[in-house]
Amino acid sequence: MAINLATKFSPLVDEAFEEQSKASLVVNSDYDFIGSKSIKIYSVGTAEMNDYGRNTDGTARYGVVKDLSTEIQEVAMEKDKSFTFAIDKMDEDETLGALNAGTSLARQIAEVVIPETDKYVYKKMVDNAGKTVEETITDENAYDSLATANAEQDEKSVPEQGRVCVGNPMYIKCLKADKRAILDSEIGQNLRIKGVIGEMDGTNIQKVPSRLLPDVNYILAHPVATTFAVKLADYKIHEDAPGVSGSLVEGRVYYTAFVRNNKKSAIYVSKKKTAVTTYTITYDANGGTGSIAPVQVEAGKSVTLSDGTGLTAPTGKTFKGWAKSSTAQTPSVESPFTPTKDTTLYAVYGE
User: What does residue 315 show for φ and ψ, rounded to 5 degrees?
Assistant: First the structure.
């Protein structure tokens, strides 16, 4: 017999998600389902201000009447995930009932579902942010970086109340060490559960594991920008299913997240600055005199090689080009040249 747990446990699961999900602070749930597989959002435009025509007849005094523009953003449910596990009769008996459907489901939500959905939400936000910068965060610039992010959102008229800075542990460490940062740590327990460590300049500061924010220092966001819809559709226990002595638990998680087209400015992302690999090209006079300064080239890029200016060829010879071997009789490296490692090029001379 299959026992459907949707009615019994869904409210419990929804509550657990709201309490434990870190991403719940930066998302909204303002949506309506169209059927069961998509969500529709209406973005309504505004009207321009006109000069009032006092001596103009009729409604034209207020300007030319136009319909307000509307943009429809329809988003399909994107993630349809499932899980299953068995609870052996003896395991449940020997744990005095501690291992049962309810506790196992709650643990599955806390340890698997929530981290996976949080990471998914953060990636959506990073990929669709209104502003993204790359920078290296230190103890000296952590506060200034966040102040710049807040100033950017001020300019975009993003509401100040409700902004959240979601940072990885290293960014939070640098922020605490920055002498200009004043962190108010008087916050409620419900926020601490979500990783909020304090408030600064009106912005909640939330710490999340780096695995949820790969290659990101922090996200400054207002929940008005990102919508998260989750359907915890189906949970069942099959008693003594074929091949199982005890209970077989099955669950399905159906969810999506998206950034509203007209609210992207409410997301500011500070990414870790990508280390640039460079290679050094060294020019060897190879029997001639004089020198040419080495050249630094970024990986994947090409450089125009020196034409030999700065070198004096051996008596009776002229500069012909470059080779990777000091004994080469003819040039073998063409310009432009794309190095794949540090390279020494030897001058080739001829009659």
Answer: -55, 130
First to last CA, the chain: 95
- For the chain, how many residues are written? 351
| Contact between residue 107 and residue 12 where contact means Cβ atoms under 8 Å apart | no
The string of DSSP letters for 140-203 reads: TTHHHHHHHHHHHHHHTT--STT-EEEE-HHHHHHHHH-TT---B----HHHHHTTEEEEETTE
The share of the chain scoring above pLDDT 70, in percent, equals: 81
Distance from the Cα of residue 31 to its chain's centroid:
23
- Which residues lie below 8 Å from residue 105, measured CB to CB, with a gap of 6+? 5, 9, 13, 235, 249, 251
Q: pLDDT tens, 197-221?
A: 888 888 999 999 999 999 999 999 9
Q: Which two tokens stand for residue 185?
A: 């740590």
pTM for this prediction: 0.69
Q: Give the distance between the most distant pair of CA atoms in the chain.
A: 98
What does the DSSP assignment read for 93-106?
A: HHTTT-SSHHHHHH
Q: Which of 24, 16, 264 shows the shortest CA–CA distance to 152?
A: 264
Element (H, E) at 272: strand 267-272
Contact 124, 258 (CB under 8 A): yes
Give the pair of three-digit tokens for residue 325.
């071997």
Neighbouring C-beta atoms of residue 231, cutoff 10 Å:
15
CA separation for the pair 180, 140 (Å, rounded): 9
Does 235 have pLDDT greater than 80? no
Between vectors from CA 223 to CA 220 and to CA 225, what angle results, nearest 5°? 85
Burial state string for 116-152 with b = 16 or more CB within 10 A and e = fewer than 16: ebbbbbbebbbebbbbeeeeebeeebbbebbbbbbeb
Nearest to 81 by CA among 228, 254, 244, 221: 254
And the tokens for 202? 């009106």
Pairing of strands 343-350, 278-284: parallel
